[in-house]
Amino acid sequence: MPRSSPPPTSPAETPCATAPVIVWFRDDLRLADNPALSHAVASGRPVLCLFVHDPGHAFARALGGAAQWWLDGALRALRADLVRVGAVLHVARGDAATLVPQLVAQAGAAEIVWNRRYDPVGRETDTAIKAAVKEAGVAAHSFAAGVLHEPWTVRTRTGDAFRVYTAWWRAARAMGEPLPPLPAPAQVPAAPPPAAWAEQCVGIDALGLCPVAPDWAGGLRAAWQPGEARARERLHGFVHDGLAGYGDARDRPDLPATSRLSPDLRFGHVSPRQVWHEAVAAVRGGDGAGEQDLGKFLSELGWRDFAVSLLYAQPELVSGNFRTEFDAMPWRDDADDLRAWQQGRTGYPIVDAGMRQLWHTGWMHNRVRMIVASFLTKHLLMDWRVGEAWFRDTLVDADIASNVINWQWVAGCGVDAAPYFRVFNPVLQAQKFDPDGAYVRKWVPELAPLPTSCIHTPWTCDPAIRRRVAYPSPIVDLQGGRARALAAWKGLSGA
Which residues belong to the signal peptide in this entry (predicted)? Predict the structure, then answer.
């Protein structure tokens, strides 16, 4: 045989033209700007669309109850969207590291594709699966779809990860505009599922993602409808009708001044690139908002990427303090105070309004998230990990990188953190950002009859009025709590 001739190949190395491509959906539950799906369709092969519910994966933690509820609706919406373009969503349940290679082999697939994830457990799982299927002679490819900039692409001049957001953002902007989003495929040529998949593919109902006894999700259903179509509606409505004034109004929980896109980004109903380009196009097309509002909004997208890059560089931040001197912090363990915080019964109206909004809708305004987190970690001197766990269970947008990095930022133990001695005063914050008390009156309705002059300090109201209001007294004195936190902080080595 001449040396220039190609070597002989085995059947596994040259799959037949009808061998399918498997698209493994994860946190990218959409058709548009889905590079893995677009690649599969462009291959010309029939496509199998797969979702594997791996309860053990969720960053080595159980997926929170609110996020499970959202995932149920998200999968149903994706299933309907795929049907409209001729495809079928196959839903399996089990350990992805074991199950995915089995499903690939059973399908006789030529290739499996997915969009990358960056959390520690996800990266480890994906690396193992890619190695396993490639060893079996099946191609495996992954794509960037969930961030504007992958975590290893924005680095300091010495190649290190950034530790300060402003520097990271400056470097990211210097890299230019993100790539334009891909269109949704008009048609997805579906492959018939192999018979062996019938045992593994159980369907969405069998996942049992929604609460039953009791069904506590009524408020979530009233507030949200998961899926790509509704996400695009939210995005379009915000950039055309809500972006103007965003820079000044975004801190006002009493106003509809934020995008509310966080759960859509978390589950991938829209991509950051879609959000970026639609916002830029609206502003530069003269649709109301100015460059200042646009810049502030884009920087919030950037912060999301920054959180991903931090966790990618230091996976231990999932549960460990970035500032290790906080390992010696004398956190309090008080079940009664924690329960009062969780239930919105602290006696501080803005804190309680936020916690009740969270429980009822699975979401909380960003400014209020900072207020309630500061109150827990500083005035109550409780470990940020306790608050992070509660948010993880109750937020529909619970994202491991953002949740962990934001909690550490507020607690003062994280990267680029607010100094520990910067303690949010919930009364002053409420008076500044909810000046008429509209937010408090909505979520703490028992305080609605109070005059605005004391809506944020009900203990100062006229006693005759106060007696008619069934609302708890403050569980901690603000000055005393602040002093206790500062004393604990000053006692840390190196603080």
Answer: none
